[in-house]
Write a structure and sequence with these properties.
Blueprint: E1 9-13, H1 21-30, H2 32-37, E2 40-41, H3 53-58, H4 74-87, E3 94-98, H5 101-104, H6 109-119, E4 125-132, H7 135-148, H8 179-182, H9 185-196, E5 201-205, H10 216-224, H11 243-257, H12 265-282, H13 292-300, H14 303-313, H15 339-363, H16 366-369, H17 371-379, H18 383-409
Parallel strand pairs: 1-3, 1-4, 2-3, 4-5
């Protein structure tokens, strides 16, 4: 530990992914003042809400998609952390770090060692907290994330060709074989335990019956020694994309990934995010789920691994997870119409929503507020921008004229 600093300990929360990490991070971010008063600190140096730079520092080759500006300055990262650690008030005794990518991107023991080397100089002890979710539940939740990230396949439960490869330490692992280790909790725990020590790794089971007050934020706060009341009023709700929306996003992702797509990267991202936001707000219904037998078959791949985790980390439990599968349908879900019709229904909702937004803009004061800017553009002959406003106005007028004519005709 760095000299002249008061003795401190750290809590390193590494997810796992799809276990309410965003809810935990929201509480830690919004309650920074209260945490400081209680002798806890949630740093800003490695990310304001999510400490993404932990994963980027430890495994940069696996984190290119996490870089907002396309580059990462390792020296600056180390310097920023050092400066913040030096500025922490003397009464603070516990510093909390949180990043779920430390589960998915740090796939070798060397990665974990590098992560520890970043934090160890400042703390007497580092305790790793992580939540384990039953693998089929995690896979179903991951499917929505994969759609949001641009995947265009409809395989809810991913194919895992090899659960165990010959390299016991995974020193040659990379993200191309991600699913062969993503759900392997035995090796995940072993990686962190071999670096931080068994006594400093605290796995928790992500099931309501196993969580304090039935939710992960209360459980995490209690595990850290904090009052669960800190999470009051900060609940995060996540809606799964309904079936029609899922099929539309799969089709959209395939179109945007086509080399012949006319949209640039920035426009594609904007279109994708807009469509997702509308579908989440406007659609109702349940997402597509695997059948009960499919879920059981997927989960069966991990029973031996889970049993080893239970024996070592949860000997008081009869099974690592609850093994009921009633949440899945017995047979393939019968959705209205074909996938093609699902895409059309979702498309109509998106178009309708966008038209309403345009109409609200046209009838609001916003149009009048932009009049000076449009006049200036016309006066200075900046035709592309001026033409855009003119065309938008004309289209709205034409649309109202057509609606009026149709109404009179009927």
């Amino acid at each position: 530990m760095v000299k002249n600093n008061p003795p401190r300990s750290a809590i390193l929360h590494i997810g796992t992914e799809k276990t309410g990490t965003k809810s935990i991070q929201l509480v830690l971010t919004r309650r920074r003042k209260e945490l400081a008063e209680l002798g806890f600190w949630y740093p800003r140096a490695l990310g304001d809400t999510n400490h993404t730079e932990l994963a980027i520092y430890a495994a940069p080759e696996n984190c290119s998609d996490l870089l907002e500006l396309g580059q990462f300055d390792e020296i600056q990262c180390v310097r920023s952390l050092a400066e913040e650690m030096a500025s922490i008030p003397p009464h603070v005794r516990v510093v909390i770090f949180s990043n779920e990518h430390c589960h998915s991107r740090l796939i070798t023991t060397d990665h974990v060692r590098k992560l520890r080397s970043l934090l160890a100089p400042y703390f007497e002890t580092i305790t790793v907290i992580l939540y384990l979710r039953r693998q089929d539940d995690m896979a179903v939740s991951c499917f929505s994330t994969r759609l949001r990230c641009g995947h265009s396949d409809f395989d809810i439960l991913p194919y895992i060709p090899q659960m165990r490869q010959s390299d016991p330490d995974r020193s040659q692992a990379n993200l191309e074989d991600a699913f062969s280790y993503y759900f392997d909790y035995e090796r995940l725990l072993d990686r962190y335990a071999s670096v931080f020590g068994d006594q400093f790794v605290k796995p928790r089971i992500y099931e309501p019956s196993s969580l304090e007050a039935g939710n992960v934020t209360s459980d995490f706060l209690t595990t850290c020694g904090l009052p669960p009341s800190l999470s009051d009023g900060l609940e995060v709700t996540h809606r799964a994309i309904p079936a029609d929306g899922q099929r539309f996003i799969v089709a959209l992702n395939g179109y945007l990934a086509d080399p012949n797509c006319a949209l640039d990267r920035r426009s594609s991202k904007s279109l994708h995010e807009t469509c997702l936001a509308i579908l989440e707000a406007r659609l109702s219904g349940s997402p597509v789920l695997p059948t009960r037998d499919e879920a059981r078959s997927f989960y069966a791949q991990f029973t031996a691994i889970n049993e080893q985790v239970r024996i070592k980390w949860f000997p008081e439990r009869t099974t690592l997870f609850s093994e009921t599968f009633h949440q899945y349908p017995e047979s393939v879900q019968a959705h209205e119409g074909s996938p093609h019709e699902s895409v059309i229904r979702a498309s109509v909702i998106i178009i309708e929503d966008l038209l309403r937004r345009i109409e609200r803009f046209d009838t609001s004061k916003s149009w009048r507020f932009t009049a000076p800017m449009r006049a200036l553009l016309l006066a200075t002959h900046r035709f592309p921008a001026a033409t855009f406003f003119a065309r938008l106005r004309n289209k709205l007028r034409q649309r109202r004229t057509m609606q009026t004519s149709y109404t009179k005709g009927t």
